[in-house]
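Hi V.,

Quick status before I head out on leave. The structure for the redesign project is tokenized and pasted below; the design run finished overnight.
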């Protein structure tokens, strides 16, 4: 579903993505972990072309990323993205936030988009909030709206960049539960997170990045019990201690 080959990316003299080779199969869930600044967010952002790459290629479902125009808008709709900050439209209701993309980009009718939005809001457990505005919801609820909004476009793949790291502890679980559900439902997912419980429950593969490279990758079981590189051992030592 996602294929990155020989991908290179620089920010000025900083080589943030180095020789990235990554294939993610349909329905596969890949968790990306690694120290701050290792390139995890940049990796995600190149996959829906929020960042351009300097060399190499990226394909989604067998098609190279388009440069611009309608083809790029279509691609963005195929690749759902959920960030740490929810970025909901403050002056639109929860339902309107979810229907905006389908109506504008997918040309859905308002009635169809509303129906689908209510289904998705139900699925993420916040249908009762559909007529409220984002500021009236908790962080965990807003993040679940952001997930519903991405799903409303019927994406082929979902990218999550630290979706729970801005949330209070009691809200983390409700968001992770939605993500586990999605994973079990067969969604192709790339998830940057340090939530090891999620990785163990839902990931098919854990990918460890350091200094712009994929240093190692393995099943969660193998990776957490038997990390191979010193970088990964050192990193796991730090995060598992606190
Ligand atoms: N727009 C930009 N311009 C210049 N440098 C950038 C830009 N975005 C990221 N960087 C740099 O690229 C490197 C990788 O950043 P990235 O955000 O991908 O790391 P990360 O692994 O997501 O880190 P974190 O865990 O802190 O989110 C960092 O050194 C960062 O400072
Ligand atoms: Mg990041």
């Amino acid at each position: 579903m996602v294929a990155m080959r020989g991908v290179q990316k620089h920010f000025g003299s900083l080589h943030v993505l180095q020789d990235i080779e990554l294939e993610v199969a349909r329905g596969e869930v890949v968790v990306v972990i690694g120290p701050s600044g290792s390139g995890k967010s940049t990796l995600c952002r190149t996959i829906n072309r929020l960042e351009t790459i300097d060399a190499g290629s990226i394909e989604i479902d067998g098609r190279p990323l388009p440069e611009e125009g309608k083809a790029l808008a279509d691609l963005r709709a195929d690749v759902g993205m959920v960030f740490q900050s929810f970025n909901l439209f403050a002056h639109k209701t929860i339902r309107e936030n979810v229907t905006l993309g389908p109506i504008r980009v997918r040309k859905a009718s308002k009635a169809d988009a509303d129906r689908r939005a209510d289904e998705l809001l139900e699925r993420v457990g916040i249908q009762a909030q559909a007529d409220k505005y984002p500021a009236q919801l908790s962080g965990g609820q807003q993040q679940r709206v952001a997930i519903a909004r991405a799903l409303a476009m019927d994406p082929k793949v979902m990218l999550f960049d630290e979706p729970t790291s801005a949330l209070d502890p009691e809200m983390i679980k409700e968001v992770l539960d939605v993500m586990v559900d999605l994973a079990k439902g067969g969604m192709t997912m790339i998830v940057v997170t340090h939530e090891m419980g999620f990785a163990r429950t839902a990931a098919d593969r854990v990918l460890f990045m350091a200094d712009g490279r994929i240093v190692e990758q393995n099943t969660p079981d193998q990776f957490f019990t038997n990390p191979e590189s010193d970088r990964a051992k050192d990193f796991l030592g730090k995060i598992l201690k606190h």
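Above is the designed sequence. The domain at 25-55+156-241 is CATH 3.40.50.300 (Rossmann fold).

G. will cover questions while I'm gone.

Best,
W.
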